[in-house]
Amino acid sequence: MDRKPISTASLLTEAFDATTRLVRGEIALARAEIEANLRSALTGVVLILLGLSVLFVALNVLSGAAVAALVAEGFTPGWAALIVAAGLIFCAGLLALVGRRSLSSANLLPRRTAENIRRDALTLKEAMTHDTCS
Q1: Measured between alpha carbons, how far is 30 from 58 in angstroms, rounded to an integer?
Q2: Are 30 and 113 in contact (CB under 8 A)?
Q3: CA-CA distance, 73 to 32, in Å (whole number)?
Q4: Could you state, in order of their start, the residue ranges of all structural domains in the chain?
Q5: Residue 65 in contact with residue 4, Cβ under 8 Å?
């Protein structure tokens, strides 16, 4: 087995090319992950808006009927309206919290890319340490 010695320039070129490919791959992964996270955020915004639309429609229909039902049960109209309003506010808050969870900054971070970069840096550090020790 006759092996030709590889020149330092050739090794440096290969290392540079590999590093370039690695960086480009990480950038592509980060871009894809951010795009997916933005789609998730858009879904969250749509859900919030949908929840608000349903709330406004339901507010008119249900509040009148609920107030009337409470008045028929013996509550004064003022107390009946207050009870109904409190229930609707609770429901609106719940919808907003669910939508807000989709928009949290933690959900928008490119976690896989960060983990890959950490592993690549660790591998590179180990390779440098191994080369230095040899």
Answers
A1: 42
A2: yes
A3: 58
A4: 16-129
A5: no
Rounded to whole angstroms, the Cα distance separating 50 from 10 reads 60
Q: How many CA atoms lie within 13 A of 111 on its CB side?
A: 6
Q: Which of 57, 81, 85 is nearest to 70 (CA)?
A: 81
Please say whether the beta carbons of 86 and 79 come within 8 A.
Answer: no
- pLDDT tens for each residue of 100-109: 887 777 666 7
pTM beyond 0.90: no
Closest CA to 63 of 37, 48, 83: 83
Tell me the two tokens of residue 13. Answer: 């070129």
Tokens 């409190």 belong to 86
* Residue 10 exposure: Cα atoms within 13 Å on the Cβ side: 4
CA distances 132 to 14, 76, 122, 123, 126, Å, are: 19, 85, 15, 14, 10
Spatial contact of 53 and 133, defined as CB atoms under 8 Å apart: no
pLDDT tens figures, 66-106: 999 999 999 999 999 999 889 989 988 998 998 888 777 76
Q: How far is CA 88 from the centre of its chain?
A: 28
